[in-house]
Structure prediction request, 288 residues.
Amino acid sequence: MIYSLLSFLVRLLSYIPFRVLYIISNCLFYIVYYVVRYRRAIVRKNIVESFPDKSKREIELLEKNFYRFFTDNILESCKMATISRQEMSRRMKFINCDDLNAVLRKGKSISLYLGHYGNWEWVSSIPLYLEEGVIGAQIYHKLHNDNMNKLILNNRGRMGAVSIEMYKTARYINELASEKKVSIIGFIADQSPRKKDSRYFIPFLNHNVPVLTGTEKITKHYDFEAWFLKMKRVKRGYYEAEFVRMHDNPKSLPDFELTSIYFGMLEEMIKTSPEFYLWTHNRFKYAI
Prediction:
């Protein structure tokens, strides 16, 4: 019952034209930022600590720009419930697909490093750009709310992406490898590990943060190529994401070097337009 109601509301929102949706987003921004004040203390702390050289005025402007994008992102994600493949391809463009597909055609699978930057939900449209027969999958962390989790997974799967729950990652990749299936698997690798698992730290946005290293271990173990998705927002409702090879031979790198390369590329992207990063997460809670 609850899922049906949520699904109905999201589909209802998804039918609203983009130009009207952004008027709604403008109103939602004022509610989220000024009335509800959703996680404003965490957002301010994260931004101030990450950019100590910015003035108070610059911090406030960045904070507001982030929340404007945040409400846009929520409503844009709702559009996934009904948006056509043609419309999605027009609004979410992927660059350097030929080089990426050349690797996949050779039978080489790819680990795709992502961040909580731009509209990462629309990245699930990657299968529209892949060679026929290539599996496009993404690793996800299950939400506590089962209804929301089911809704998001249904939306992500509309363009052909397969969603793999985090604890099933190794088993799933093992099955693909044993069946010799070629895949590109997306890992949003900027999440913070649990405190007891915080063993390796990397400089990131003026913090020394604990990081997850599972993506690197998988990439090396299965001899995958490692690519980074460099995203930018062209304008409201339009994005470009460029596939960038991180290293020619990840398996040859010392331990944690691939993870360091990823965080360096992610930081560079964030500093270009920091308002498009997800500042509401308490990303630096275990930072040194």
The longest helix spans residues 56-78.
